[in-house]
Amino acid sequence: MVDRKERLEEEFELGEEVEAIHEYEALTDDYLHITASLIADEVAHLAEARTGVAVDLGAGPGSLVRKLAVRFPQLLVIGLDISFLMTKLARDRARVEGMKNVAFVVADVHHLPFQAQSVEMIVSHGAMHHWRRLDMALGEVKQVLAEKGFVYISDLKRDAPDELVQHIASLLNQNQARAFLNSIQASYTIEELVALAAEAGLGHMRVEPEDFSRRTIAQNIKRLKGSPMRGMRQAAINLRLVGGGNTV
């Protein structure tokens, strides 16, 4: 199985993990900084009050972990990533910001290091297309998720409109654009994710375009006005697997 380190290098088509992480960090900070806030607010509304442990699968530099930790101070939010260097970056950022209810671990999504039914919330954004065996990873999610736990896993859609895909790619530098286009090709359609979720025992959860609520948009309107990704039709480019909490 190819690990996240190799997958990141492959996606950016760069020879060194450090180079790939640098480009990924820049992409997150420059273009996707608003996404973590949008998802955290959406999750806060859908999941309702939670205690215990939350896990971000494929946490990268930890942006979503830190946003969730603020909105769920009663949760321990764990960022999980297979890259040691990426995990160190995320841990350092959280330390600088003085985050208390966060932790970061190096682990493989195909072999989650948690007891059965011990995780109250599982989230992920932009990582699912990295997972070589999505059926196995979703099976792990099913295994460790608490009985009434909440799931929010979002990623790109392979069948996103080409015009939109090319427009987004044009906003990025050469390495980032290449990585974005590679990510699109490695991602899933809604139909594929529906089948895989059902196979993993998560068929009761919704698979749908990632369309943020009016409440979430309103909470982030100032940030959106300053974002180069404003008006990018999130529902056309992203999908999500979501279930539990206020999602009926």
Observed structural traits:
248 residues, 12 helices, Rossmann fold, alpha/beta, 7-stranded mixed beta sheet, single chain, 7 strands
Account of the 3D structure:
With 248 residues, this protein is of the alpha/beta class. It has a single domain, classed as Rossmann fold. 48% of the residues lie in helices and 19% in strands. The chain has 12 helices and 7 strands. The protein has a 7-stranded mixed sheet, with helices on both faces. Helix 1 crosses helix 2. The protein is globular. It starts with a helix and ends in a 5-residue tail after the last strand.
The sequence of SSEs as H and E is: HHHEHEHEEHEHHHEHHHE
Proportion of beta-strand residues:
15-25%
Largest sheet: 7 strands, mixed
What's the average pLDDT?
86
Topology record:
Blueprint: H1 4-12, H2 17-30, H3 33-47, E1 52-57, H4 63-71, E2 75-81, H5 84-96, E3 102-106, E4 119-125, H6 134-144, E5 145-156, H7 162-170, H8 174-186, H9 190-199, E6 206-209, H10 214-219, H11 221-225, H12 234-237, E7 238-243
Parallel strand pairs: 1-2, 1-4, 2-3, 4-5
Antiparallel strand pairs: 5-7, 6-7
Helix pairs in contact: 1-2, 3-4, 7-8
